[in-house]
Design brief:
mainly beta; 2 domains; 7-stranded antiparallel β-sheet; globular; RmlC-like_jellyroll; DUF4437 domain-containing protein; DUF4437; RmlC_Cupin_sf
Length: 278
Amino acid sequence: MRAHVELIHENDYIWHEAELPFGEGKALERRLSTDEEDGSSSLSLQFPADWGRGPGVAHADTEFYVVSGSLVYGGTEVGPGGYLQVPKGVPMDWIKIREGSHVLHWREYGDAGFDPDGPRRSEGSPSLIDPSKMEWVAAPTVGPLTPLYIKLLHRDPKTGFYTRLIRAPKGWSDHRLAHHPCYEEFYTLSGKMAYNFGDIDEGTYCFRPAGVKHGHFIAETEIDWIIRSDGELVNWYTTDEWVKWGGTAENYHTHEAPVISTLPVRSRSRGAWSGDGM
């Protein structure tokens, strides 16, 4: 499983040589989180020089999201916001990433292994998306909230696993504590939000395991994230809460009780710890 990472700015991580087998060129990585059991990883990549890799089959579900710069996949180029998803075991075409680019990269349900010109091992096909050509869609809300807005990039019809962009307008707020039956992971692309664990701003990362309560949020500016989850993200809310984990369970059952994380990983750059000075 992965550790609970409750707000770390990517600048608090260290650059390493990127683990991108059979690639040619220069690539550096910041490893945002890793599952030590199956090798699943979330990475922030920088490219001091052009980098590329030929066709092959990856050992994991593979995703790339262009924060800045550009990515070329099989001859088609996408700029900032461009998104590529290739299912595990499905052949992928050649890829090239331009010098100076910043790209987010995820490997799910597998490690960094890559077989050049490897055989197809599962069904499915790659998906290359330019989200700038997509419309923002208002998400359903519960209670008197201003809507969040979504661009769905990927959804697995069998597992419900999804990747999507989410936008909160300036002034959006939710005072309730929420938890989910699946993990929730986000990287902040722009904007700023106040949160009880510290400020969320551009470059802030979070990996929150299933069942961990979180809230309250106030969007100080319009703010955008890319968010991933390994299942249908159902919100179970707690209101009338008291410090950390008390309150009234409104719409979930005993077997859906939240996990209480006592020691999340969090950067001090996100704000003082509650126990500082004790």
